[in-house]
Amino acid sequence: MQRYLVVIIPVFLTLASNTASAQTVRLDQYQHPSEPKFKDFYKLYLAGVRDGLIAYSVRQDAKDRLFCIPPKMVLTTEQAEDIMLRFAEKKQLLGNIPIGVPLLGGLAETFPCDER
Q: d(Cα 26, Cα 97) in Å, to the nearest integer?
């Protein structure tokens, strides 16, 4: 239960804030960039979020991991994008949510840990 609180509390704090951080890419921004060049920046941002979530997951004890990517699998940015967008569509998430939230949810759904 504590591992979920570690993730859920920051997510709710992010959602509760009235002002958007200039460093946060929202789902709607990602799907509909205001300029074509921003799509490339957003993909780089998504790659960083993907790498951060994977690094965090690997650092956790096996019983505390939120998702378990197979050891020899390399998750590309395109695969991460597909996972994120499918999860956001399935859960009908709002466009103002940071892209890390549907990515984390999608990774947990796509790569569940069998130990639980």
A: 5
